[in-house]
Structure formats: C-alpha cells, structure tokens
Amino acid sequence: MEDDDIEYDITFPSPGVGIDDSDEELDEYVIEGESKEPVVFLIGWAGCQPKHLAKYCKIYEKRCITIQYIPPTDVSYINPKLMTSLATKLLDLIKDFNLEANPIFFHIFSNNGSFMYTEITKVLTSPGNKYKNLQVKGVIIDSAPGKRRVLRAAWAFAIASGQRGFARYVAYIGMIFYLLFLRVCLYFKMFFQASGSANPHRVYEDIMEDKTRWPQLFIFSNADKIIPPSDIIEIAEYRKEEFGVLVETLRYEDSDHVAHFKDHPESYTVQCNAFLDTCLKLGSDIDCLEDVDQ
C-alpha cells in the first residue's frame, strides 16, 4: 500500500496456519480469547526487498497484525531529516486502522531499521506528542545496532547490491568513497541544523540512551561480518544495568547478518513469540517510558 509517500504492507492474523503446520510448539503462544491482536511493525534493513520482509510475517501470522516497512536508504543516508516525518506517518497508521488499543511491538533489522526505530522513539517520548496512549510493549532488534564503521557499512551495501565475485569488490570500493563523501556532506548539514536532528551516524548512541523502557530482545550471531557481537552485547548489558530494562538475547554461532531466521527458522520463531508472550503478560506492571513532560 502507499499512503502519502510511505509504502507499506499490512497483514492480518490467519489462525490455523504457521511456519510449519506440523509443529504444534507454536500453538501455546496463540492466546485463545486474546481481545486485541498484537501489532508488529517489521522495519527492514538496507537493501531489503518486500519479498524478504514478507517472510517474517510467517512468525506472527497466527496471532498478530503485521505492518511491513522498508526505510528508503536514500533518505537514511542522503536526506535523514525526512526520517522524523516518516516515523510520524508510520505511527499514524495505528490510528488509521483503529488499532490504538492494541499492544504494539517493533521488530527491526540492522542499522537502517534501527535508525527508523530511533526516530519513532524520539517521537513517542517528545513532550506533548499525540501518541502517548499507544500500547507499545517491546522491541526485537535483529543484527543491530552497530557502531560507526565505514568499511563494514560499505561491505553491507556491496552485498545488498546483489553483485557477485569481482563485481562485488568493485561495488565495495566504490561504496567506501561514496560513504565517506556522504559523511562529509552530512556533517556540514548537521552543522547548520538543530542538535536533535536525525543522524544515521548516531544510531548506536541513540539506542543506548533511548528513553523508552519497554523490554528488548537482541538477536545476533558470532558469524556476523557486518556488526560484531561485541557491539550488541555491550548495548544489551548497558540497557539492563543502567536503566533496568528487561533485556533478552538470542545468540547464534553460524548465521550471517540478517540471516538468522533463514538459517534457524524454528528457534527464531519460537523465541520471538515467547518474547511477545512475556511482554504481554507483564501488562502494565512495567514502566515503558522514562518520565517526560506531557
């Protein structure tokens, strides 16, 4: 669907189907009589295509409404100030579909999805915002966040380009120079903008100091060539120890960047649904936002 320059897809729950109909292990997470279906925002990575993100709907299709969105990389890295407007439009979908009373989750991927998420949380925690009554319950963070590393980011883009062999390395070298050029341009832009403006180079710091306090599930791997596990372990421990956030982690040994579900579909699916179940059972017993002026 397209709504005022924002393209998204929405799916509604289909009881009786799932990632593997012969596997009854997931049925325990389908809560009979659940009055309001959870809403899961799936926010994709750089280079992600709708068909890639649609596969993750299988995780939730028995019990959840999913809204799938891929932040445009040209906005993320060339015109990031537009990210705040896109974040507002995404949140407006909740009202458009009359889902204000439904529990809300975010499932985000890599630094591109994380950048979109940080702008959403800034909107949700801003004084006097119109979304203060939304029932956000938790976030799942896949393969993110990672600290600023031009070489790793360039390699991620080279992979996303779909090139193979020698052509991939040409794309990699070209992307290094391109990202360095963008970084210089962005720094000049930021110099003339307010300090709180959207900045893709502050994703790691923004998630670390995020004012929200709802539970977080970090999914990552020792084999990730783009974002090392040490980045994610550091931020997970910091959120838990500094702010008392309920943090869970799912760590794999062999899956590549944003490939954990592809390589481990059963354990990934079970863990995501178990996390939703934990958050829903917490209900209102947990403070999800740092105190902000309303």
UniProtKB/TrEMBL annotation:
It is a single-pass membrane protein. It is found in: Nucleus outer membrane. InterPro entries: AB_hydrolase_fold (IPR029058), DUF829_TMEM53 (IPR008547). It comes from the Eukaryota. SUPFAM superfamilies: alpha/beta-Hydrolases. This is Transmembrane protein 53. Belongs to the TMEM53 family. The keyword Transmembrane helix applies. Keywords: Membrane, Nucleus, Transmembrane, Transmembrane helix. Pfam families: DUF829. The keyword Transmembrane applies. One of its GO terms (cellular component) is nuclear outer membrane.
